[in-house]
Known about the structure:
The protein is of the alpha/beta class. The longest helix is centred in the N-terminal third of the chain and has 20 residues, at 3-22. Helix content is 45%, strand content 16%.
Amino acid sequence: MTMRSAWRYTRFRASVVAGHLRRMRPTLLGSWTGGDPNSGGNRWAVYAHYSRQGRVFDYVLHALKALCDEGYRIIFVTNSSNFDSAQIAAVAPWCAKILKRRNIGYDFGAYKEGILNIDDYSTIEGLILMNDSVYGPLFPLGDTLDRMSSEKADIWGFTDSWEHAYHVQSYFYCFNRRILASPHFHKFWRGIPLINYKRAVIERLEIELTQFFLDRGYHLTAAFPYNALVDRFMSLLASEQPDEMAETELESKERLRTHFATGSRVNSTHYFWEILINEFRYPFIKGELLSQNPSAVYGVHRWYNTISKQTEYDPDLIVEHLKHSQRPRLFGIVPHT
C-alpha cells in the first residue's frame, strides 16, 4: 500500500467512526409547515438541498413542482444553516414540511432526517429520495414513474453504476410499499453514520444501500441501465462516419470504445449525457458535469443547445445557478444579446 493509499484508507476509516458518533447527536435546527398541496395523499418525497448562499434557485422550485404534480407530499431538507425566512417562503407552497439541519452527512444525512420526520413511513405507498445535484426534470417525470411502476422493483433509480461495486446512483431513489414496511428499511436508515468525507459517502453509503438490500433479497434496478447505454453508444459509434466528426471527438470516442472493450466502467450520467437526453428522454443532467466536467468528457459544450432543441425545459434556469457556482467552467453557455 502506498503512502497516499494508506492516508486515504485512514481518512476513510476515521470518517466512518466519526460518522457513527455524530448520528447520536441532534442535527435538526428548525422545522416549518408548508402548504402541503397533496395533503390527502400517501406518497412522500424527501428533497435534499444545499447551497453555500443558503438560496433556493429556480431549478429547485421546478423540481419541487414536478414532484408535486405527480402527487407526492414533499419534505424539503436543507443542509444550509443560513437558510432564511425568504427561502422558506419560496419552497413552502410545494412542501408539507421544511427542515433545516446541520451540514453533516451530505445528502444521506438529509435523506435520513426527512425519512425520520414521516410519521409512519411503514404505512406509506411510496417514497422518493431526490437531491439537487441534477437539473430537471427535462421531460415529464411521470413518463418514467409510470413505466417503472410495472417493473415491480423494490427500489429503483434513474441510473446505475458498476464503479467500485454495483449500485443504484443516489441522486434519485424510489422505494415501493413492500420495502418501506420491512424492518430492513428501518434498520438501514436508523443505523447509517453521518459521514463528512465524500468518497466514504459513496463507498460506505451509496454502494452499501444497494448491496444491503440486494443481500436481503430485494429487487433493485435502474430506469436507464448502464449496459443498455454502453450498447447504444457502441451502436451509434459504429454507424457514424469518421469524416462526420471532428478529429478530437473521434479520438475521444475511440478511446471510450477501447475502454468499454476492456471492461472498464464510467459514470453514465457524465459520459452518456447526450445519448440519455437525445435517445432515451432521460429527464436530468448532472450539475457537476456542467460546472466542473471532472472526467473531461468531450462535447459537453453542446448542453445548452441540446436541452433547448430536445426538451421544453428552460436552460436559463441552469445558467442562473451556474453563475453562482464556485469555480465553474461554464461549458456551452449561450450568451444573450
